[in-house]
Amino acid sequence: MRQHLRIKSRLAGGRDFSHPGTGHRTARSQTNRPQTGLPRPRTDLLEYILMSNNATLTAQQATAPRRYDWKTSLKRLVRLKLFIPMIRNAHAPEFTARGVAVGVFWAMTPTFGIQMALVLGHWIASRRLFNWDFSLVNGLAWTWITNAFTIIPAYYLFYLTGLLILGRYGDISGYTAFGANIAAAIDANASFLTQVQQGFAALWSDIGWPILIGSIPWAIASALLSYHAALGFIRRYHEQRQARIARKQARTARTVHV
Fold this sequence. Notes:
- With 258 residues, the chain is an all-alpha fold.
- It has a domain at 93-253.
- It has 10 helices and no strands.
- Helix 4 (93-107) packs across helix 5, helix 4 (93-107) runs antiparallel to helix 10 (208-257) and helix 7 (151-166) crosses helix 10.
- It is extended, with a radius of gyration of 38 Å.
- Mean pLDDT is 77; it is low at 7-19 and 21-31.
């Protein structure tokens, strides 16, 4: 009889009818399950949704790009494009400084638009003909000290210097008039290549010859100054870096001995 009731209890879904007080769950009962120590599942759905949204917003804020004002952005751009390639170059400081000097030399000439091509040609010719090498990466980077924002002031400086060298003191004009002449020579709505062609055509005009003559002393002086400045900067950086590494190793050694 007892065996018959046990079989019946299995068919009834796990209830044991062989003992008094039937209708209670056996070992399958949820209330009699052993405690495993695991955390109970989250029951507050609203709290869970709010926490998930906060976590998502925090992750988005952490990965969102920072926004800086124009001064900070300019400093970061100069540091990233000009100074970091100098200090991360694996070659000797003189090698890197020569690249900076070559880039600055061509940047201080009225060749805007083809300055990088001229640096590349200079690099190929100096390596093959004179066995003289320099950092091409730094040379290309430093040509950008003359750009769309600095080209008019730089050309005006070359223009004044050229007029003084040629002795044409009566032709000296103000900056506003000079900018108007440059704007008249170059069409702002034309393509980049067309603007380069127009710029070289302007070099053969009345203002072009003084600009070309006046750029020569500035290019030579800027190249010499930039070489020594870059060489000193790179050497100081490596000395400070070696000093930091030595201090760190000394602290580590003291900690190990203690």
